[in-house]
Amino acid sequence: MTATPLIEFRNVSRTFSTGGRTVTAVDDVDLTIEAGEIFGIIGYSGAGKSTLVRLINALERVNSGQVLIDGVDLSTLRERQLREVRAGIGMIFQQFNLLRSRTVLGNVAYPLKIAGWDRERRKKRVAELLRFVGISDKAWNFPDQLSGGQKQRVGIARALATNPKILLADESTSALDPDTTREVLRLLKRVNTELGVTIVVITHEMEVVREIADRVVVLDQGRIVEQGTVFDVFSAPKTETAQRFVNTVVRDAPDRTDLDRVRARHPGRLVTARVTDTGGLGAALSDALNRHRVRFEIVYGGITAVSGRSFGGLTLELTGEDADVDALIAELRATTEIEEISG
Ligand SMILES: Nc1ncnc2c1ncn2[C@@H]1O[C@H](COP(=O)(O)OP(=O)(O)O)[C@@H](O)[C@H]1O
Ligand SMILES: [Mg+2]
């Protein structure tokens, strides 16, 4: 049995024509997001991320293909039905987009007012939301009196006011410092686990994907160039674009500069061994090293934890008789990905 995906893109393209130039912002995208996921979409500026999320809540319309929410093709809906779909989708933004002239309370109550909730119900719901996001004490403050993290908490409370099933987060932590980013991401995780809201996280920061997403797609010039579980994409990126993103957080082998420094002090044979926690980090490595008359020294290492699992690389200097080192490397290759560094 396969359940209907909550969000589905089928061959979706969206182009813009401005000043005689046509830009394909979203180019033949196929995508499924299941209910309950935290789904990451990463790409550089201009990759088409914002256009892609705006297609989900029909703030943008497709030129070709279909966007389905809960199995319903948005292009078949009239404006009134579209408004209903939109009511089930909350959104938060990089610049928070709060109403400066209204208090925290007023901002969070606003969508409830629009939806026709009466005063008593609004009051109760707003109190509940402010408690959930942890800013009850700021209810009577204005946005200008809040820190960035507090503003985004208000944004999240407002987005959740009418109990949406989907939350779209477009660069929602990009204006925040690393500590505040982590706090907001922790809150989004609670929105997912405690309220069961499916979250689509748009970002250009791999750290954000690493912290909260289950699956991720890499968008490049409107196209999906890579997709998979966050662990798979982080531990074995296939495309150059994905590799560049992964390299911003994962350093499992020495780069050119590291290597020059290592070389200066370690003239012996250098190998980098891939390690994962499936075989016990480096257990095979340690067994093999014990059986050969080869000395080793760890000269570089990087282990990364993603989605509760670890992977990385250890660079070793191996010293001993050449034949012994060769035998060791040959044995290691049988179980472990080994790269000998030349020169
Ligand atoms: N309303 C628009 N009119 C014209 N071009 C647009 C419009 N919206 C987006 N684009 C273009 O589409 C491409 C993707 O933009 P966008 O979806 O904002 O990317 P991202 O969010 O990844 O930075 C860019 O080249 C951008 O200039
Ligand atoms: Mg954008």
Fold and architecture overview:
This protein is α/β, with parallel strands linked by helices. It has 2 domains: 7-88 and 164-247, P-loop containing nucleotide triphosphate hydrolases (Rossmann fold, 3-Layer(aba) Sandwich); 256-341, Alpha-Beta Plaits (2-Layer Sandwich). Helices cover 37% and strands 30% of the residues. The protein contains 12 helices and 14 strands. The strands form 3 sheets. A 6-stranded mixed beta sheet has the order 6-7-8-3-9-10, sandwiched between helices. Strands 2-1-4-5 form a 4-stranded antiparallel beta sheet, covered by helices on one side. The termini are far apart. The model has no long low-confidence stretch (mean pLDDT 93). The chain binds adenosine-5'-diphosphate and magnesium ion. Residues 16, 18, 23, 25, 43, 45-51 line the site of adenosine-5'-diphosphate (ADP).
Beta-strand proportion? 25-35%
Task: Compute the number of structural domains.
Answer: 2
- Quaternary state, please? single chain
Q: CATH superfamily assignment of the largest domain?
A: P-loop containing nucleotide triphosphate hydrolases
Query: Secondary-structure element order, as H and E?
Result: EEEHEEHEHHHEHEHEEHHHEHEEHE
CATH class of the largest domain: Alpha Beta
Segments where pLDDT lies below 50 for 5+ residues?
Answer: none
Q: Could you tell me the mean pLDDT?
A: 93
**Major sheet: size, sense and barrel closure?**
6 strands, mixed
Identify the bound ligands. adenosine-5'-diphosphate, magnesium ion
- What is the β-strand count? 14
For the largest beta sheet, what order do the strands appear in spatially? 6-7-8-3-9-10
- What general outline do the C-alpha atoms trace? elongated
What is the CATH topology classification name of the largest domain? Rossmann fold
Rg (CA only): 25 Å
What is the helix content? Answer: 25-40%
Q: Indicate the structural class.
A: alpha/beta
CATH architecture of the largest domain: 3-Layer(aba) Sandwich
